[in-house]
Design goal:
- The longest helix is centred in the middle third of the chain and has 31 residues, at 64-94.
- Strands 1-2 form a two-stranded antiparallel sheet.
- The chain has one domain.
- The chain contains four helices and two strands, in the order ββαααα.
- A hairpin with a 5-residue loop joins strand 1 (5-6) and strand 2.
- Helices cover 75% and strands 3% of the residues.
Length: 129
């Protein structure tokens, strides 16, 4: 089956080789975004702690709103490589590279896992003191 697009006249535009090349590019970029996870985690930590300190957060007694305001940007920054890996991995699959699912699944698992771990930590701290 030919994976090209059709023009308004019905002519086929784009060769299968172009789609395959696009799939390979998306696949490699998905892995590169996963390689950026350590950088995003450090940036998320610095930004989250910086906002928390700027708001006057105290380790012993902190208001939930200060933790929330500091955590949201940190969680977004930490999730960016995973979201990009999911988008690019799915694009690679759509363009004909089925192994694009691997970086997509890893990226989703890392993003959800990191966010879940932080939420669980916050809840455990509130419940158990």
């Amino acid at each position: 089956m030919f994976a090209g697009r059709k023009s308004s006249r019905g002519d086929v535009i784009g060769a299968p080789q172009d789609d395959r090349r696009g799939a390979d590019v998306a696949y490699r970029r998905a892995w590169w975004f996963l390689a950026l996870y350590p950088v995003s985690l450090v940036a998320a930590f610095v930004i989250g702690e910086g906002i928390y300190s700027w708001l006057g957060g105290d380790e012993n007694e902190s208001a939930a709103w200060t933790v929330l305001i500091a955590a949201i940007p940190a969680l977004v920054i930490s999730a960016l490589p995973g979201v990009a890996a999911v988008v690019l991995g799915r694009q690679a699959v759509r363009l004909g590279r089925p192994d694009g699912r691997v970086p997509a699944i890893i990226g989703a698992a890392l993003a959800v896992g990191f966010a879940g771990l932080n939420v669980l930590s916050f809840v455990a701290q509130r419940v158990f003191g």
